[in-house]
Each structure stands twice: as structure tokens, then as C-alpha cells.
Design goal:
258 residues; alpha+beta; six-stranded mixed β-sheet; 6 helices; 14 strands; DNA-binding
DNA sequence: ATGGCTTGAGTGTCAAGA
């Protein structure tokens, strides 16, 4: 079974890239972030033709998350239980017996801003909700755009980014709190090339100069981490014309797919 | 350089991303 996450930065713009990528990478579940559309603009028909079910927590202009899957998604849940939030950032579903939680975590804009406070409250609320989710579904994967670079090795210029948004210590502590739930960073279960990132700024030739951050992650509960065989960042779509600024991340699990 | 690109909204430019 293969599971993946990709912040597409507008599904309408990126649909051709998405369909091409799915054809070349037939994963069993794909989490999307920043669909930036409501259901009426969501390409259910095109994805169905490509062999994928889709569940979507949509929002116009900003945010919006979806789970695509080959098998029928079950027990679909939206948002964070008990956390009042107008922003559509979470959708969860069970696919082939694996609980898939798709999250577009807040950016936070700047350390100390109102949005930063919201980010930290949001991260704490998600953590609380995952505690219960794990009780019910021990085989759980938390995939998405975390908007957190967990360590300095996930940052192209750790000195310039020190204590900045995406890299601040409270954000990194929140990431470690997810790990503290018993989740493992799938990417770090394996040897990886240094300077591996999942996002590059559109400006200043960020991708060509590999000025990036690793902020898109797949965290796996212990029963899944123990059967994880590989985790890769696929930079190919980032090289296309009009790319998303994020690359997909894929984890391969030694589990039967439907 | 509260900048640079990109998107969506909407037809002016601005908010937001990371």
C-alpha cells in the first residue's frame, strides 16, 4: 500500500499535473491540501475516471483538503472535533483499514502574530484530537503540509531561518508532540540525501538553487512504521511548467492494498 | 526592501502563502 501527500496550491490550476502524477504514481491514498475550491469546483468526475474516490473539505480561495483513494473511504470526518474553526484544514477517512488524517496546518505568518497564536492553538487541538483517533484506529497516518521544518537539517539556511516562522522552537515542540503520541516521521526512518526539501519559494529561483524547507510530512503510528518500506519526496512535478511550490511525499507500507 | 512569485477574487490591486 502506498500513501502520499501533496499541497497542490489550487486544484483547478494543478489538475493536469495531478492526473499525470496519479497515472505515473498509482498510490492507494493521496492527501491534498490547498484545493482552494468548494465542492462545486472539485473535479470529482475527472478523478473518478482516473480510478479514484474523493472526499473533500472544501473552501473558496484559501485552504481546502481532500483524500483521494482507490478503495471506498470509510468513517469520513471533517475538521478537528471540539475546535471551532472556520478554516477547512482537516479531513480524515479510513482506507483499506488504515486511518488517513489529512491536514493543512496553519502557516502562522510571523512569530508573535495573531496567526502564529492561532497556529499553536490549532496544533494543540489537533494533537488532542489525535489521541482519541489513535485509540479507535491504532493504524493511523497523519499526512499533510505541516508548515513546520522539524530540524535544522530540514532547512536550506538554518541561520537565516533561526526562530523564524516554520522553524521556531514552539512550532518544533508541537511537531515533537505529534511524535510523542507514538508517531514516527516516515522520511527519517530511512537514509536520505542531505538537503532534501519538500517546498521551495517561487521567488528568487528557489527550486533551482535548492533553497527549500522540508515541511510536508507523513507521520506513522507504530504498527504502520514497523511495516514502512520506503519514504520519498518526488521532485519531478516541481520541475514542470506552472508547478505547485510543494512536492509530493510518498510512503510505501508493506500492507495489502484492496 | 513587510520586497521577490503565484493564486484567487474580480477588473483595482490586494490578501495570503512560507
Amino acid at each position: 500500500m502506498k500513501i502520499a501527500t501533496w499541497n497542490v496550491n489550487s486544484l483547478k490550476v494543478r489538475l493536469p499535473h495531478l492526473l499525470d502524477w496519479l497515472a505515473a504514481n498509482p498510490v492507494d491514498a493521496l492527501c491534498l491540501q490547498e484545493t482552494k475550491t468548494e465542492d462545486k469546483g472539485f473535479p470529482f468526475a475527472e478523478l473518478s475516471a482516473a480510478g479514484y474516490h474523493a472526499v473533500h473539505n472544501g473552501q473558496k480561495t484559501y485552504n481546502g483538503v481532500a483524500i483521494l483513494s482507490r478503495s471506498t473511504p470509510q468513517d469520513v470526518r471533517f475538521d478537528i472535533p471540539g475546535f471551532a474553526d472556520e478554516q477547512k484544514r482537516v479531513i480524515a477517512a479510513t482506507v483499506d483499514g488504515v486511518r488517513i488524517v489529512c491536514a493543512y496546518m496553519p502557516n502562522g505568518q510571523a512569530v508573535g502574530s495573531d496567526k502564529y497564536d492561532y497556529k499553536l492553538r490549532w496544533l494543540a487541538a489537533l494533537n488532542t484530537s489525535l489521541r482519541e483517533e489513535l485509540q479507535r484506529w491504532p493504524r493511523l497516518a497523519l499526512l499533510g503540509d505541516y508548515n513546520i521544518a522539524p530540524e535544522d537539517r530540514d532547512v536550506h539556511d538554518p541561520v537565516a531561518w533561526k526562530d523564524q516562522i516554520l522553524c521556531s522552537e514552539p512550532e518544533r515542540a508541537a511537531f515533537r508532540e505529534f511524535v510523542g503520541l507514538g508517531l514516527a516521521d516516515a522520511y527519517r526512518l530511512f537514509d536520505q540525501a542531505p538537503k532534501s526539501y519538500s517546498w521551495w519559494d517561487y521567488r528568487q529561483m528557489g527550486f533551482r538553487l535548492n533553497r527549500g524547507l522540508r515541511i510536508d510530512h507523513i507521520l506513522l503510528s507504530a504498527p504502520l512504521a514497523s511495516v514502512c518500506r520506503a519514504c520519498v519526496i518526488d521532485k519531478a512535478p516541481r520541475k514542470l511548467e506552472r508547478p505547485s511550490d510543494h512536492a509530493p511525499v510518498v510512503a510505501e507500507l508493506d500492507l495489502p492494498a484492496a
